[in-house]
Amino acid sequence: MIAKSQKHWTGDVHDLLRVGDGFVLADVDPRETPGYMKDKVHAADDLAAGSVQLDEYQERLFARSRVDATNASVLLVLQAMDSAGKGGIIRHVVGSVDPQGVALAAFKKPTPEELEHDFLWRIEKRLPEPGIIGVFDRSHYEDVLIGRVRELAPADEIERRYSAINEFEKKVADAGTRIVKVMLHISPDEQKERLMERLERPDKHWKYNPGDVDERELWPKYMAAYQTVFERTSTEHAPWYVVPADRKWYARLAVQHLLLEALEDIDPQWPAATYDVEAEKKRLAAS
Amino acid sequence: MIAKSQKHWTGDVHDLLRVGDGFVLADVDPRETPGYMKDKVHAADDLAAGSVQLDEYQERLFARSRVDATNASVLLVLQAMDSAGKGGIIRHVVGSVDPQGVALAAFKKPTPEELEHDFLWRIEKRLPEPGIIGVFDRSHYEDVLIGRVRELAPADEIERRYSAINEFEKKVADAGTRIVKVMLHISPDEQKERLMERLERPDKHWKYNPGDVDERELWPKYMAAYQTVFERTSTEHAPWYVVPADRKWYARLAVQHLLLEALEDIDPQWPAATYDVEAEKKRLAAS
């Protein structure tokens, strides 16, 4: 499926980026731009056009949820290595939607209270309401990524979590939420360049954390943990998409497109009036 | 004070719109555009320029809060009659800021749980974190506006609330939050036109509520309740601004300007690195 009037794609982005059987993360080149026929120069215009569509789709979704009490919502799950561009996706893709239609949840190191509960406890509380586009900046997948790499939980608990995630996401999807899981995939070299830029620019110093360099040594372990995540949790109701992200402009266009597809699939229509329009016109005119 | 490079204002918006001693709401013409020297045609460009400034200020505020553990934040309180343009302010002014830097709270009819607590209980929970621009779409002022007009609480309880609000806001301001309270002021005729448009356009039908016409009959009572709010709660630490809002483009520019002023007054600077920048460059290069 290609989102309406998204004519700049040569292929089906959904299929090109989706994690299916036999997927191998190591085979994905983070510098590629699968399915996009044009270049960076045109990407800005295409992103702007998509922004208008995304905003209208979300408003329709919201309107329907208010009038028809439908449960449809969208949940974008963003996972990535540091500096891969999650923030840029939120700013430039999600930021084009009316703030009233977006619910953003950033999951950081769990608090002591959160650690007392099951790992999905804090996640469930932040699921989007009907009509809303929810965005998870990191998510329950941290508990099988850093959780696995840094051995923050026993091996059998990590193992248990994959099925717990699948069951949880199935329940969420069945309740009306379209789940779009995205891993922004950058190369270690690109990350090095981006971190170096943070060191070179005083207005970016605050974004740099010396711990980021230590994490780089664990890169292969993280990639292995992602590979396992993809094998165990890319399902029909909650598929993973691996988006090559060395080129920021491509990653933004691709994620925007995945969101547009999810909304197009829901196809929300403006709801009909639940009152007598002509009678109300008369009442209002007389008021 | 005029926000830097906001050269299109002829007067001090802050002073022109601020509710001071002797303020009379009935004397404000909702069609006026105080302090703005240009017209609608230029307003879009000026709003776009301000958007860039607002976004950068907020990022600086956020950066400082992360590194220096400062408490500064901004809280925009929006109150208005239906269709006055709160949603437009959120979409077009607040929407220009990175979604990661904004916390939006819409206060609707209180839930049974909320009604069991003091009226400020639900408000306190939604105050912005350091570094964030909080936006209240309606607020604790509903409890002395509709609360008063529709007699939802005894008269002495309503009376008590004005001082409770002042004490509460003083505490919030002392803790580092710059409070900007805005009433978007439209005329009954303009409201009628806007509601009629909702009835005329199928994509706006969902925004119309027959109860809106009933509320119109209470207009003078609402204006009297607002006048009392202004007299009792426009303080040094949390001033009210009445923004003429019959012209949407003016109201958006004016609110943007008030936010810019609040941020300029905080004047957040990019924080210095808390690590050895040169040493980190070497570590990173070697990684």
Automatic annotation (TrEMBL), chains A, B:
One of its GO terms (molecular function) is kinase activity. InterPro entries: P-loop_NTPase, PPK2-rel_1, PPK2-related. Residues 53-268 form the Polyphosphate kinase-2-related domain. Signal peptide: none annotated. This is Polyphosphate kinase 2 family protein. It comes from Microbacterium salsuginis. Keywords: Kinase, Transferase. Pfam families: PPK2. Transmembrane segments: none annotated. The keyword Ribosomal protein does not apply.
